[in-house]
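Proteins fold reproducibly. Look at a concrete instance:
___
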Amino acid sequence: MAKVNVYNMEGNQVEELELSDAVFGVEVNEHLVHLAVVQQLANNRQGTQSAKTRSEVSGGGRKPWRQKGTGHARQGSTRSPQWTHGGVVFAPKPRDYSFKMNKKEKQLALKSVLTSCVNDDKFVVLDTLTMEDAKTKELKKVLDNLKVEKALVVMDSNDLNVVLSARNLPGVKTALVNTINVFDILKYDTVVTTKAGVAAIEEVYA
């Protein structure tokens, strides 16, 4: 069973915490992690790219010159793809890029990146994270005490002061336990959460 140090907001270690092997001790499946990232990026695509084929471009109704005797290659329309202002060959059209992953595959991918974070010492646990006011400077001070710059702050409940404090920090993002995803965990160097956050993660994803 993996163990992590628990720190206070001043950056001092206060205790050790045992993590559930069901979430933080699984065998890392790189294929599913890759698939989960590709799925999220594909599902985020608008799919609104569009261009006109030769049948949709205006003009080109008349044959530009007679079939024979000009010395030019035969042409049937000035809107053929080889002409300037012609249509596009195999023009892209609006489409849906999204695809589905099985629920168990998505869960295993998430557990895999959480396990990697713990193994690489990129999973930081605080005893509590409370902000009296929404002040970016105060949250920056806490992260500096933890020697963390690029962080995903995972909260067990929606703390508006923490959210507002993190909003102006480049490289810092807040997320609730039930909204974390593989892409965000990989994008940010460190996952920062609280003991309550760890308990909520284990409860939701075990």
